[in-house]
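DUF262 domain-containing protein (Paenibacillus antri), 518 aa
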Amino acid sequence: MSLEPIPIRKLIQRTMSGEIRIPAFQRGFVWSSEKVAFLLDSIYNGYPVGSILLWRTREQLASDRDLGPFILPEPPDQYPMDYVLDGQQRLTSLFGVFQTELTPSTSGDWFDVYFDIRDKQFLAIADREYVESHHFPLNTLFDSVKYRRATESFSDDEKQVVDEVQERFKEATIPVETVETPSREHVAIIFERINRAGIPLDTYQLLTAWTWSTEFDLKEKFQLLADELEPFGFGEIDSEPDLLLKCCSAVVTNSAAARDLINLNGPEVRERFEEIRNGILLSIEFLRTQLHIYSMKVLPYPAMIIPLTKFFATTRTAGTGYTEVQRRQLIKWFWRTCFARRYSSSLDRAQASDIAAMAALRVDGNQDISRFPCNVDSTFFLNNQFYLGALNTKIFIVMLAQKLPRSFLSGAAVNLAEVLKLCNRTEFHHIFPKNFLDRNGIGPKEQNVLANLCFLSNADNQRIKARSPQEYKEWIDRDQYNVILDSGLIPRDGLDLAYTDFLRERATLLTEFANTLI
C-alpha cells in the first residue's frame, strides 16, 4: 500500500480520463451542498480533510457508478484502473466543483460553488442567486483562460483575494492511499476493516459487481426465495443479503468467512443454486416444525440458518430426511448455541466449526455437533429484562414456546404460528401485573425480569388488569389449573407466593427446563 499526497488538479485529471472509477457497490453521492462548501473551507484554511483509498487493478468490474451527477468517460484500454474504496464523497465534491468539461446529468441536483469575495466564504448557490460582482466561480481556478475572464472586472484588491484562493487550491494536496493487488481476498479483508470503522459497504453489491453478470441475477433469485418464505414469516430474509450469501458460501466452499465469500465462484453458485435454495427452505421448515420459530423476529441468531443450510442442502426436489438421532443433535445444537451466546463473538470461528460439524452429521448421524461449553443458571431469568428484539428475550420466548403454552383464563392453546409470526408485545404479559407491583413498591427493573413474563392473550390480560395473582387465579379453570401453569413453566403454587419467592421458584423451574434442552 502506497501513500502519496496528490494535488487536487491531478486528481481531477485522472478522474476525467476514466482512470479513477466509482465501483457499483459504493453508495451514491449523498453530501449536501453545505457539506461540500465546508470541505472547501477546510482545504482553504489548511485543515485535514481525510484521505482517499483506491484499489488499483487491471480487472474491470462488471459495472460501476457515475460520479455524483457526472457520467465519466470509459476507462483507457489495457490500463490499470483505480476504484475508490473510501473517500468517494470528497472526490465527487472536488471533481464537481473544479472540473469544467462535463455537464451534470438532468437527474443530478448540483449547484455550482462560489467564493464570496466580501464575506470570504464558500457558497453553493443556484444560477438565479449568482451576483457577478462578488461571487467568484471556483470552477475557473484551474482554467487560466476562464480565470482571467472571471476576474477582469474585479478591483486590484479583489483580484488579490481571488489570487490567494487560487494559490491555496493549486498547492493543496489530498492524501491518496493506493492498494495494488489482483487478490480479491486482500480487498475483502480491507473491506472488512473499513466496515468495522463504521462505513457501510454491501457485500452483495460488491460480489455482484465482479462475479455475476446479467445472465444470473442473484438478487432476483433471493427475492423469489423471500417471496416463497413470506407466508411462513421469513420473507424479510431478503433484507439480509449477506446472510444469504453466506448460505451460498457454506454450501459451495464449506466456509462463510469474508475471504471465502469474496472468492465465491459465480458459475458454481449458479449451477448449485437449487441445492442452496432447498437447504435454506428446509432449514426454515425445521425451525418452524421442530422449534416453533415462526419468523425471523424471534430467531435468536439469524446466522444459525447458515450451518443449517449446509446440513439440509440437497439437489432432491422433495428434500432430504433426517434420523431421530440427527433431529435431536440439531435441536441440542440450537439450544446450546443460544444459551452459550456462541454467535455473539468470534462468529467466523464458530460458524466454521459448525459448518464442518453439520457436514459431518449429514454423513454420520451419530456425530456430536455441540461439544462446546454451555451453562444456564437462574441468573439468566432473574437478571435479564424482557425487551422484544433483545437476544436473551428471544431465547426466552422460544424456550417458553416449547411447552405449547395456554392462556391463563381461557385455557386456550396459544396460537404460536400467529403470535410468533407477528411477535407483538400484546401477547406477552407480566404474571404479577405491573400496576399491582407498583402499588406494592416494586420498581420497573424488578417487574420486568424474564421470570415474571409469560404468554398471555391480550383479552385475558385486560380482564386481569392490576389484580393480584391470588385474585385472578380464582378465574382459572380448576380442572385445567395444573395443565395451564405447567404449560407456562409456572410453579403450581406460584400464584400464592410473595413476589420475591415466586421469582426464585419460577427461575428454578425455568433453569431446570433449560438444562434439559442443552
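The first helix runs from residue 8 to 16. Residues 197-201, 211-215 have pLDDT under 50 and may be disordered. ok done for today
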